[in-house]
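Q: what sequence does this backbone want?
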């Protein structure tokens, strides 16, 4: 797993085509072949888009039973669609540092989808890179890289429960079944030391729901003291700690006459280590002198831990990707 080849590729600019009437027949045939290839590529991209999940999905991994569940997130609950056996890190326990051969535990998203020959043969027909370490891991000092959900070119590996260098591994044919259910940057993968009943209905957690609603209310009301009280003392985002974040938000409050968040598609995910809240953020602010201040629409991700027995935001990120 470690030291897997990168996926960056460079592309040169296609030169302008000369006037077709002046082309030789050979060149015409070559261009026809190119056009045919381009059509195949267009069809391939369209087909890929057509297989994207119409519903909101999540991947759950139970390290105790070596099971991977493909689920649909419906009304704050997980509905299991597929179940697979997975082999995990050769060393038991939660990942702490690079090359410790442990599979990390937590809530993550997928950052890239790779096919051969951009991945080594041992990763099989398809690999999804997991966004490990995430902000929570970085705050906790955890290290490592190239953690993936991938297939394998040695099917007998799946007879073992613990035979990876920290990745989650399934069969080639199984990862093809999983593929349509993953939206990069949006579909979470939750890796549990043991998946118990209390984590299967995360949207029913009234304490977490009330916390989120209170945070939005104080943000829109420009109640700075109430708003900042929702943040953990170890909070970090955009290179700012909690005091700097408070000062940054105070500056915005002084400029804007109103702020609207307009959350949609709010989803709650719970894990023994921390929780995650994602939602479509429809941000609108108006300047005190008139006119729009800032407008944006995208997905906000909140990492929520506990401090003194209360939920607090440890970190937050934003992406223009949306369900």
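A:
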């Amino acid at each position: 797993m470690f030291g897997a080849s990168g996926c960056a590729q460079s592309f040169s600019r296609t030169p302008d085509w000369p006037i077709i009437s002046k082309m030789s027949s050979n060149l015409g045939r070559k261009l026809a072949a190119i056009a045919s290839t381009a059509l195949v590529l267009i069809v391939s991209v369209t087909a890929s888009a057509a297989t994207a999940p119409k519903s909101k999905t999540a991947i759950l991994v139970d390290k105790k039973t070596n099971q991977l569940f493909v689920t649909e997130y419906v009304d704050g609950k997980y509905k299991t669609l597929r179940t697979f056996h997975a082999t995990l890190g050769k060393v038991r326990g939660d990942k702490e540092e690079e090359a410790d051969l442990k599979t990390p535990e937590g809530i993550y998203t997928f950052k890239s989808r790779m096919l051969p020959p951009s991945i080594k043969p041992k990763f099989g027909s398809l690999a999804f890179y997991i966004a490990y370490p995430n902000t929570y891991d970085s705050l906790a000092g955890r290290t490592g890289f190239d953690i993936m959900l991938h297939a394998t070119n040695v099917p007998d590996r799946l007879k073992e429960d613990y035979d990876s260098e920290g990745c989650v591994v399934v069969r080639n044919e199984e990862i093809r079944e999983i593929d349509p259910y993953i939206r990069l940057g949006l579909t979470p993968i939750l890796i549990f030391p043991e998946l118990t009943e209390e984590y299967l209905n995360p949207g029913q957690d009234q304490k977490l729901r009330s916390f989120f609603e209170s945070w939005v209310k104080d943000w829109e009301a420009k109640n700075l003291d109430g708003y900042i009280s929702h943040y953990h003392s170890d909070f970090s985002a955009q290179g700012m700690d909690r005091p700097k974040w408070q000062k940054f938000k105070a500056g915005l409050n002084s400029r804007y006459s109103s702020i609207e968040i307009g959350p949609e598609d709010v989803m709650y995910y719970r894990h023994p280590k921390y929780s995650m809240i994602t939602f479509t953020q429809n941000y609108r602010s108006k300047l005190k002198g008139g006119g729009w201040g800032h407008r944006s629409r995208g997905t906000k991700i909140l990492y929520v831990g506990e401090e003194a027995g209360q939920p607090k935001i440890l970190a937050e990120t934003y992406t223009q990707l949306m369900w």
